[in-house]
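FAQ: What does the model actually see?

It sees only this:
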Amino acid sequence: MKILTGNDLKSGAVVWWDGTGWSVYVNDAVDVGERADEILAREQSARRVNAANAIEASRDANGVRPAHIKDRVRALGPTVRPDLTLKPADPEIGNWVI
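And it is asked to produce this:
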């Protein structure tokens, strides 16, 4: 599966394409298939997102998981304090990244 990620131009937050807009939650990401370049061009020219790109990911019962560790870290949120991540109540979150 191919998903889109980038940074929100207003807040700088890591965002994921959900099919109609950008979400801070990776589990909202949708498979864009062959439409990646078209969507990226439109969204970057509209200045809604910066440094956007298409990445490989998979979806299972636990949600969407980016293929590369760099993108899994970006999806989780700050790594300096686990209580500030997007999944602070999940005691197994460290296993999701690695």
